Amino acid sequence: MSTEPETTQDAEPGTPGADTAAGAPEPTGEHVDRADARSGDGDLAEESDASGEEDASGGEGTDAGDGKDAEGGEGGAQVSEAAAELAAQRVERERIERRKAEKRAPIAAGGKLSGTAADLLAAVRAVESGEKPVATAFQEPDPAPRRAAPEPVRRPQPVPAPAAPAPGAAPEAVAAVRAVLAGAGAPEALAASVVAVLGEGAEDRLREDPWQLLRAPGVRPEQADGFARALLGAECGPDDERRGTALTVWLLEQAAVAGHTALDAPALTAALSQRSVPDPDTAVQNALAEGEALVFQDALDSAPPASAAQDETEEPEERPVRVLIGLERYALAEESLADGLARLMNSVPKEDGSAADWERAAASAPRAAGELVRAAGTNGLILHTGGEASRSEAAALLHAARELGLRGWAAAHTSGGRDDFAARTVRHDRAEDSADRATVGAATGAATVAGLLSGAEGPGRDADGALDLDVLVVLDAPQLDVETAAMLVESLPDGARLVLSGDPGVLWSAGPGRVFADLLAARVCPQAASRTPDPGPIGELVSGIGIGELNQVEAPGKEVVIVPVRDAGEAVHRTVQLVADSVPRAIGIPAEQTQVITPGHGGAAGTRALNAALKERLNPGPGRFGGFDPGDRIVHSPATGRALPGRVVRADAEGLHLDCSGAPVVVPKERVEQTVRHGWALTAHQAVGLRWPAAVVVLPGDAAAALTRPWIYTAFGRAERHLSVVQGVEQALPHAVVEVSQKPRTTRLQALLKAQTPTVD
Predict the structure, then answer these.
(1) Residues 163 and 196 sit within 8 Å (Cβ to Cβ)
(2) Taking the alpha carbons of 143, 147, 150, 153 in that order, is the dihedral positive or negative?
(3) Contact 661, 635 (CB under 8 A)
(4) Is the pLDDT of residue 211 over 90?
(5) Which helix (H) or strand (E) holds 720?
(6) Which pLDDT tens digit goes with each residue over 577-591?
(7) E strand or H helix at 693, and its extent?
(8) Number of neighbours of residue 135 by Cβ within 10 angstroms
(9) How confident is the model at residue 662, as a pLDDT?
(10) Which residue has the higher pLDDT, 91 or 711?
């Protein structure tokens, strides 16, 4: 705050407030200054104008009063009426004179102020009168407890807020469950989430079966066991059938979080044994009998050919089968997906051009894209594999489809991938000016998968509820989980062409399933492999990792830099130094275009520690809004598997306002701690589908066990122009590239597809 008093110059002639009413003294400079400081220039002008009007009306009233006095002396019949009129005018004149006198007197500014405002006004007057020097008058007093409630304080590790009740959940139901939880010593904050998963009868269900608490997010078996002991007392035991059923469902749900759509029966019973279930087989059978899970028998191989010499009366040899146990929602999604894919493959693709037209389009396309265009001419489902450079081939396919009169759309996993594909399409169509770019972008129809399904983006739906398109290219296809893929395929009309395009070397989806990998392994549709290599030293490095080789590449422009560190503390220090100083100075890429990627959230060099250090350096602040300040880089996760990088704009009563790739997002206050994290540092799973001009990959020593070839491939591939690797795992890095492949997932899609469609060579 400036310690100089406000300006005290007199108002210039012709300025608002310079002219006053007749007979009023010219206002002094102090008068103008304090009025201006109190109300502002506009208010001061309005006050001067109003005083002029009042003075003029007062003069007219005085003249009229004089006339009435003379008139009152002439006729006694009008004395009472005239006296009343004169009395009223006299009161009015006195009021006007008081107002004028108040305006002539100095204004006692600040008379109604209190607290800090009054202290500041007293300090200003002390400086003006010379009683105190400026330094002492405005010196901060000793800290004292604040009476006003402070802003939310930034905490190092935010505590998750209680889950909001399900829409429509009765407050009485939440209160009843809260009472049950409190009586058994369980956290009352779980009440809302318990009602959300168990419904309105949650209180009775908990009393009848305490292990139903396992259905609430975040509850572990030992916690549910303690809750059951508190409710049931001596009746509680590890052999309780209710416990076995609940643990069976819980293990299947945890398997889905790990990416499995089902579990082998022996693996499930072994896991139940580890949880002290005395009879795992009976527990599984009880879960099946109650409809909590489903059982499947999938053949392990195809039927052997019948022998000519085989006796017709001889019974056929039994085929080996695999017994799987799964939850209904994922089982139905996988079967629906298989049926939908078979429908697309068996339906005749819409023809808006002859075979010769498609052949001409393939011949005119770039050489790398010709095979893809040719396959799309006669097939309803095509798989397209390749790295980042292969996206230009998908753009060429859509260009060819539009030239033939088909409605083509592309859907990416992230908004960044959508925008990048739109830019590639613009370059492919050779649009030069901004107007052409906008036209081509709209014609191309780039969207996100989530936006396409929700209707927020894309072509909309036809009268039958299907997506109003003829060709759909899904980019980042490895990120499709079974439920999303099933909804997408079910939304396609008969005769539509579906092209699943992606890099098979990146991490699989966050949700259950491995749709793209299962389709590649099933070999039930044509596959077009890109032969376009990713350019530059980073492309060469990443391509080698994809085939299990960690090569040393030439990087004359410092495209790839290895930074060895001894421990996690040094890793954090060097990372901040790279982002804030070294990369901007040596490479010319600013900090806001550099992304840090690390294996996990926890640990001494996880996303939490790195984000805290990077915020302190790049955007320091108190964390006024639940740990966040305007300008903070964040990642918003509105649903499992979705990560939207963005920035904090502001916060108000509505919630936290974000800007995610140009789209405004408002996160309600109660959802901020659950769905928003700082985003200077991300995990590779959060970063998949996005790219930045520069990436700093942090590999602390405690992350060695978490490294796999797909993780390294994904993390290193997020960089476009520069990659820095903060290396603290030593030989664990080449070992992971050569030896540690993708963690297996148990799924049924491949077997379902093979049972419905013949294999394509």
Answers:
(1) yes
(2) positive
(3) no
(4) yes
(5) strand 719-727
(6) 999 999 999 999 999
(7) strand 692-699
(8) 8
(9) 86
(10) 711
CA pair distance 646, 415, nearest whole angstrom:
11
User: In this predicted structure, which of 101-110, 439-448, 495-504, 681-690 has the lowest mean pLDDT?
Assistant: 101-110
Q: What is the mean pLDDT of the chain?
A: 80
| Residue 434 C-alpha from the chain's centroid | 29
Q: What is the pLDDT of residue 312?
A: 55
Q: What does the alpha-carbon distance between residue 251 and residue 259 come to, in Å, rounded to a whole number?
A: 12
The residue type at 524: V
Tell the residue number behind the tokens 């407890």, with chain if given. Answer: 145
Is the distance from CB of 420 to CB of 449 less than 8 angstroms?
no
Cα–Cα separations (whole angstroms), residue 248 to 197, 260, 330, 462, 633: 17, 15, 15, 42, 41
Q: What average pLDDT score do residues 451-466 get?
A: 92
pTM to 2 decimals? 0.74
Structure tokens at 206: 């908990």
CA neighbours within 13 Å on the CB side: how many for 433? 2
Which of 497, 498, 477, 501 lies closest to 384 in space, CA to CA? 501
Tell me if 522 sits within 8 A of 753, measured CB to CB.
yes
Q: Minimal CA–CA distance to 413: which of 363, 360, 484?
A: 484
What strands lie across the sheet with 633-636, from one edge to the other? 663-667, 655-660, 644-652, 633-636, 676-678
Angle between helix 732-739 and helix 709-716 axes, rounded to 10 deg: 110
457: left (phi over 0), alpha (psi -120 to 50) or beta: beta
Backbone angles phi, psi at 35, to 5 degrees: -65, -40
By the 8 A CB rule, do 324 and 746 touch? yes
Cβ(693)–Cβ(676) below 8 Å: no
Q: Roughly how many angstroms between the first and final C-alpha of the chain, as a whole number?
A: 77
Provide the CA 461 distance to its chain's centre, in angstroms: 26
Please give the Cα distance from 748 to 756 (Å, whole number).
13
CB neighbour list of residue 300: distance below 8 Å, 6 or more residues apart: 319, 320, 321, 322
Helices 515-522 and 749-756 pack at an angle, to 10 degrees, of: 40
Which of 757, 759, 758, 745 has its CA nearest to residue 255?
745
Alpha carbons 420 and 433: distance in angstroms, whole number: 17
Out of 133-142, 406-415, 701-710, 729-738, least confident range: 133-142
Q: Which two tokens stand for residue 661?
A: 């790739």
Other CB atoms closer than 10 Å to residue 640's CB: what's the count?
10
Q: Letter for the amino acid at 648?
A: V
Please tell me the distance from the alpha carbon of residue 79 to that of residue 82, in angstroms, as a whole number. 5
For residue 246, the number of C-alpha atoms closer than 13 Å in the C-beta half-sphere is 25
Are 504 and 520 contacting, i.e. CB atoms less than 8 angstroms apart?
yes
Residue (of 527, 514, 454) closest to 480 by Cα position: 514
Residue 167, classified by CB atoms within 10 Å of its CB into exposed (0-12), middle (13-18) or buried (19+), is exposed
Mean pLDDT check: name the lowest of 67-81, 383-397, 543-557: 67-81
**DSSP letter string, 381-396:** EEEEE--GGGHHHHHH
Tokens of 80: 């009472």
Q: Enter the tokens of residue 721.
A: 């122009």
Asked if 693 and 721 count as a contact pair (C-beta separation under 8 A), the reply is yes
In this prediction, residue 89 carries a pLDDT of 66
- Which residue has 């008058």 as its token pair? 137
Helices (H), 564-719: 568-577, 607-618, 672-675, 684-687, 709-716
Distant-in-sequence, close-in-space partners of 171: CB < 8 Å, separation ≥ 6 = 165
* Sequence-separated (6 or more) residues with CB below 8 Å from residue 278: 238, 239
For residues 544 and 551, the answer to whether their CB atoms sit within 8 Å is: yes
Q: What pLDDT is recorded for position 577? A: 97
Place of tokens 């509505």: 654
Q: Residue 209: what residue type?
A: D
Q: Which two tokens stand for residue 199?
A: 């419904």
